[in-house]
Design goal:
CATH class: Alpha Beta
CATH architecture: 2-Layer Sandwich
Number of helices: 7
Shape: globular
Order of helices and strands: EHEEHEEHEHEHHEHE
Helix content: 10-25%
Largest sheet: 3 strands, mixed
Length: 230
């Protein structure tokens, strides 16, 4: 068996479009409110009465031939031995070359102070509800909701002026846990594992199904694949 190559398969027939994956990702990774590492594409194709609605979950594809890695001038964007496309904020100069190179629009740039919501700086109801600074002070955390476990491999709150993206929850994988989006999916529509291990669930699913990737013409060899159809 070769080295580990993490892969995610999303079953579009099982997906119910609830966005639990998007919410779990934000909470797990302290993702700013202005963008989402776990996102989705919504499409309505055709003309009535022959209309097809499509809900396609998206995230970083952790491409084997990653254009973002090739474009990064500082090696901030790089590949890990397990196939994850990782980003090092300490090396990032904020040039956004990776974002431009990514054909999937899943790399985001922090152009504002992360997780600061102007409308929450003061209580909505004076002497009744809490303000964001008040919550932070009581909880001893930098933001209203905060997961300190994210600090295992990345700054808990990524600073302004750098890019961000999905990491397959690398900090959870190190503990033998699946990505947060996989664990949160109520329909078990996300299958995750080592595609180089023939005994893994993800390998068995790929062996039994015709899998597709987004924008195959780009030649990026994504490690997020889709099966089924809504």
């Amino acid at each position: 068996m070769g080295k580990v190559q993490y892969c995610m398969v999303i079953d579009l027939e099982a997906c119910v479009g609830c966005s639990a994956c998007d919410i779990a990702c934000k909470v797990e990774n302290n993702v700013p409110a202005s963008f989402a590492w776990s996102n989705h594409i919504i499409e309505t194709v055709g003309k009535f009465p022959d209309v097809k609605y499509r809900y396609i979950p998206t995230l970083c594809n952790h491409c084997s031939n990653a254009p973002c890695v090739a474009a990064c001038p500082t090696t901030a964007m790089h590949k890990l031995d397990n196939g994850i496309t990782m980003h090092d904020p300490s090396k990032c100069i904020g040039c956004a070359a990776c974002r431009i190179a990514c054909p999937y629009d899943v790399i985001y740039f922090n152009d504002k102070e992360p997780l600061v919501r102007e409308e929450f700086l003061e209580p909505l109801i004076p002497e009744c509800t809490s303000s964001q600074p008040g919550i932070q002070k009581k909880l001893g955390v930098p933001v209203g909701y905060y997961n300190p476990e994210r600090e295992a491999t990345l700054p808990g709150i990524r600073p302004r002026g750098v890019v961000e993206k999905c990491t397959f929850c690398d900090h959870r994988l190190a503990k033998g846990l699946p990505p947060a989006c996989v664990e949160a999916c109520p329909a078990n529509a996300r299958i995750f594992g080592d595609r180089n291990d023939p005994n893994s669930e993800v390998s068995k699913v790929l062996a039994k199904n015709h899998a597709r990737v987004l924008k195959p013409e780009k030649g990026t060899e994504p490690n997020v694949l889709y099966i089924g159809e809504f």
